[in-house]
Amino acid sequence: MLNSDVDGTLEAILNILDTYDSKEVELELVKFDVGPPSESDIELAKDLGLLLYCFNIEVPVGLRRFAERLGVEINHFNVIYRLVEDLKSRLSDCLPEEVTFEQVGEGHVIKCFSVLVERKKQPVAGVLVDWGVLNKSDSLRVLRGTDVIYEGPIRSMQVGTQAVSSVNRNEEVGIALPNEKITFKLDDIIETYKEVKVKRRIEWYPPGF
Fold first, then answer.
1. Looking at the structure, do residues 118 and 188 belong to the same domain, yes or no?
2. 13, 42, 161, 185: which one has the fewest Cβ atoms less than 10 Å from its Cβ?
3. How far is CA 151 from CA 100, 121, 186, in A?
4. pTM summary value
5. Which of 181, 153, 175, 154 has the alpha carbon at shortest distance from 109?
6. How do residues 119-160 score in pLDDT, each as one tens digit?
């Protein structure tokens, strides 16, 4: 919902909104007008969960208090650029976060052995950490040359007989995987990655902005 001070400014803002073409988040202008919003406008914003923008308008104290009682936020701007940036930010908040993976550690296999777990042979890699940190909670990748042998979670990490959740550079650790069919070889590269969620920004670039 948009209210502006004069027709010319209202038209300029409407022309900018017309350039919005993202398919990921819908933008719908429910109502627009010149002058301050009315109580019925505020009630409509409350009922439909609308954003209410006022451009270059002094909203009467009584209307502001009425909006506060209904829990309706009135967004005031007197620079079009600021209004558009605020709208872009709110649209961006509706986007799902992008999930990426950041490498946090690396090591190499210096020993290969197996242990009995529930009457099954469990391959274990004795790994020396070359840099960073290996966390049990992170995702693990096993590389043999340029081939990826395994990607996924870690079943267990042990230093001697002690279960551990992380190890640092120059430390040794025994690593087991959930898949007992995956076997290790000396000099396999062990990499660990943590999940990173990145906030996305809506792809909308109006002319002149």
1. yes
2. 161
3. 15, 20, 18
4. 0.67
5. 175
6. 788 999 999 999 999 999 999 999 999 999 999 999 999 998
